[in-house]
Amino acid sequence: QVQLVESGGGLVQPGGSLRLSCAASGFTLDYYAIGWFRQAPGKEREGVSCISSSNGSTYYLDSVKGRFTISRDNAKNTVYLQMNSLKPEDTAVYYCNRATIWGKGTLVTVSS
Predict the structure, then answer these.
(1) 36-59 burial, b for 16+ CB within 10 Å, e for fewer?
(2) Residue 46 and residue 36 in contact, taking contact as beta carbons nearer than 8 Å
(3) What is the Cα–Cα distance from 88 to 90, expressed in whole angstroms?
(4) Share above pLDDT 90 across residues of the chain, in percent, rounded to a whole number
């Protein structure tokens, strides 16, 4: 069964860090571009970052540039999102995505 499973969310204080994981099963992750999206309460889902399948090029939403880093570990069939200097406005459910395949998400709450 083809699926993506996110983990690593939680409650963190402003300025803190979290690393999200997106584990793939049923397919070889490095053959595909993988994206991270987020949806805050009352807002539309937005693209946060993605990593290509070919040369590992990356994209970041302007508001997370310099704070978030996307990476992949092909041996573990997993994509990561390292999030540093977190802000309250980063609070959202974070999803990973491959085309039409979505995980169930992991909640990140940034609050003091």
Answers:
(1) bbbeeeeeeeeebbbbeeeeeeee
(2) no
(3) 5
(4) 91
Q: How far is CA 80 from the centre of its chain?
A: 6
pLDDT, mean over the chain: 96
Amino acid making up residue 93: V
pLDDT digits (tens, 9 = 90+) for 25-43: 999 988 999 999 999 999 9
Q: How far is CA 89 from the centre of its chain?
A: 15
CB burial of residue 22 (10 Å; 0-12, 13-18, 19+): buried
Cα separation, 6 vs 69, in Å, equals 16
DSSP character for 90?
G
